[in-house]
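User: Please check token order:
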Amino acid sequence: MHAHSQAQALVIVAHGSHLNPDASNPTYAHADTIRDAGAFDEVREAFWKEEPHFREVIRTLESEEIYVVPLFISEGYFTEQVIPRELRLEEWDPERWDSDGTDASQATLEATDVGKRVHYCGPVGTHNAMSDVIVQRAESVTGDSDVGDGFGLAVVGHGTERNANSAKAIEYHADRIRETGRFDEVQALFMDEEPEVDDVTDFFESDDVVVVPLFVADGYHTQEDIPEDMGLTDDYRTGWDVPATVDGTRIWYAGAVGTEALMADVVLERAADAGADVDAAIDEVRERTGGTSTETESERHVTGD
């Protein structure tokens, strides 16, 4: 089944939640997609706030080559401190990533207590392929594979109250998507700092604005705070319209980017950048999740128009 001689494993590490039972759903969904593509001998999910926990996961693997991909948006406390410590990657130092906040790629380390080689990858949120997932999220929420003309796009993040790199990740993708010229306007907006998502309509001239939160999973930020802050609804429990009209602007609110199926591709791209033998799987996953490889462009979105 595998062309490569050494068994390779993928570990997807995510935050999880004690409070929100849906927090881990995207992690399991993307792991299943990757499992089905057959690139790895083993695929495991591990969490900080749920079982199976970070601490045990490497000990459950038989493979010698292990690729660890953090399902996190930005480089920061979790990716630089918590995960390497819990996985017992003793030679780890954030300098190994040689990053200014958005360009971590990978570091090859030894998990000393089990003698396995671990390729510790940068978070999914700063990979270039995330820009494609944000655009695909806009396609999904509008039902239009060509969405862009006459539309603004807001990429929303938490903001720097927590970590300076969190804003960098948001701005990075907003800049990349703006450069493509696909949308009339692209803005990075935040929950906790200026420019604030509360004032979303102030930052756009377009009549239609797609709002995509750069979060891994849907939780209270994306399902309660942001819809209420933007004025889509007075009470998140009653839901909101898509699109909802606020101050004369149609707001297409997409929910967390991490629930988009194409996220599985970003996880694989991270592993590929670290040397994993996954090219065939990447092609298969892109085809299955409607990714941006050219041969599937014309075949997509034939339904639902």
Remarks:
- The domain at 129-259 is CATH 3.40.50.1400 (Rossmann fold).
- The CA atoms of residues 231 and 246 lie 7 Å apart.
